[in-house]
Amino acid sequence: MKNMRIMLMVAVVTFTSVTFQFFSIHVPEAHAFSEQTIQRGATGSDVIELQSRLQYNGYYHGTIDGVYGWSTYWAVRNFQHMFGLEEVDGLVGQKTKDMLMNSTKFYKDFVYKQINEGKRFTHYGGVPLAQQTAPSEQQIQKARQIAEQRKQQREQKYKAQANQQQAQQKQQAQQKQQAQQAQQKQQAQQNQQAQQKQQAQQNQQAQQKQQAQQNQQAQQKQQAQQNQQAQQKQQAQQNQQAQQNQQAQQKQEAQQKQEAQNKATENKEQKESTAVNLPGGYSQNDIQLMSNAVYGEARGEPYIGQVAVAAVILNRVNSATFPNTVAGVIFEPRAFTAVADGQIWLTPNEQAKKAVLDAINGFDPTEGAIYYFNPDTATSSWIWGRPQIKRIGKHIFCE
Predict the structure, then answer these.
(1) Mean pLDDT computed over every residue of the chain
(2) CA triplet 230, 235, 237: central angle to 5 degrees?
(3) Could you state, in order of their start, the residue ranges of all structural domains in the chain?
(4) How far out from the chain centre does Cα 56 lie?
(5) Is 87 helix (H, G, I), strand (E, B) or coil?
(6) In the chain, what is the straight-line distance between the N-terminal and C-terminal CA atoms, in Å?
(7) Beta partners for 396?
(8) Low-confidence winner among 39-43, 214-218, 320-324, 352-356 (lowest mean pLDDT)
């Protein structure tokens, strides 16, 4: 009975291993990069494939979430630098895409299935996909080590190829230099013969030139007399034209002065009309930027919670402790998570814009708060020490 159990366990383990390998080998690959250049702040399927391929070869260790943040940006730059791409700038153009597709694999069906099911997973190369679904920390570290080893091997291979290519180029340069020296020697002999021939031609040309100069001097003397007569006639015409120009200029200056007065009046009327359409003296750019911030920070919050986030931004603008402009407050370093992860550039909906206008028009549900945080995700002990005013949705608002 005991032997039968052992044989049954061995059969199950063997079947499971073969099944994992079968699915790992036969998962279809997809090269889904679009033609657009991928850059920081981008989102969507291109970024998912970019993160998956960078994780496959050990350059990216973050979450595959389709958001091009800072961790993805530095992974791209490190990849570009190591593989000798011309531009190491974090912009994923066609050359970077080609290099990624030549050196990695992208199991699209596997990745999208895990994302759609909300599972925790990785996408390291050299590790069966079944082991990368809901992996433990130990499995992640092991997969990461395998990817790092493969990364080092590829980098060493690339450096060796680069060194070999440099040596070949150096040898070709030496051969080219020797050929150039031989060609220069031959050219020098041809030049010497050409110079002798040229000298004879120059002597002949000098005689012809001397004769031409004598003829030219006679023509110049005659031309000088004609020019003097023409200058006298031209001077009389210029004096007459100057009087006419002076009269026309005086008339034009009077017209320009009248047009300037009319334009100043028109600009004043337009400025007054424009100011009426902007609430609270804030510009259209201020309102748009605040809508982006509210949508990036609180689009999952109730409407009053979105108004509260907009009110905190305005309270900071009016506080002496913070910058006195909307842009200065929003882009102050480490002030808002949406700026750090790029969600500030998502297109806001109408509800976010309405929340901003309500806050500008005086609605402040936070009662003067200048800080807020999510207690479920906050890691700073400092923010917990701030005097708390109230909780709205998932955020706690503080003085």
Answers:
(1) 82
(2) 95
(3) 24-166, 283-398
(4) 23
(5) coil
(6) 72
(7) 373, 391
(8) 214-218
- What are 38-43's contacts with CB under 8 Å, separation 24+? 38/68, 38/91, 38/92, 39/68, 39/90, 39/91, 39/92, 40/68, 40/69, 40/70, 40/72, 40/73, 40/90, 40/342, 41/68, 41/342, 41/345, 42/68, 42/342, 43/67, 43/68, 43/342, 43/346
pLDDT for residue 359 is more than 70:
yes
Q: Which amino acid is at 98?
A: D
**Rounded CA gap, 90 and 70, in Å?**
10
- Lookup: tokens for 333: 């370093």
Query: How far, rounded to the nearest angstrom, does the alpha carbon of residue 44 sit from its chain's CA centroid?
Result: 16
CA atoms 90, 91, 95, 99: torsion sign: positive
Instruction: Please name the amino acid found at residue 55.
Output: Q
In CATH, the number for domain 24-166 is 1.10.101.10
Please state, in angstroms and rounded to a whole number, the distance separating the CA atoms of residues 99 and 57: 12
Distances (CA, A) of 174 to 67, 165, 186, 399: 49, 14, 19, 73
pLDDT above 70 covers what percent of the chain? 81
Report the b/e string of 313-329 with b at 16+ CB within 10 A: bbbbbeeeebeeebeeb
Contact criterion met (CB below 8 Å) for 298 and 306: yes
d(CA 180, CA 142): 56
Q: CA of 29: how far to CAs of 25, 105, 110, 130, 205, in Å?
A: 10, 7, 10, 16, 77
CATH class of the domain comprising 283-398: mainly alpha
Amino acid at 5: R
- Give the mean pLDDT of 374-390: 90
Rounding to the nearest 10 degrees, give the CA dihedral for residues 125, 127, 131, 132. Answer: -10
Position of tokens 């400025």?
271
Closest CA to 173 of 165, 159, 84: 165
Q: Is residue 7's pLDDT more than 70?
A: no
Q: How is residue 264 written in tokens? A: 């100043």
Asked if 330 and 313 touch (Cβ cutoff 8 Å), the reply is yes
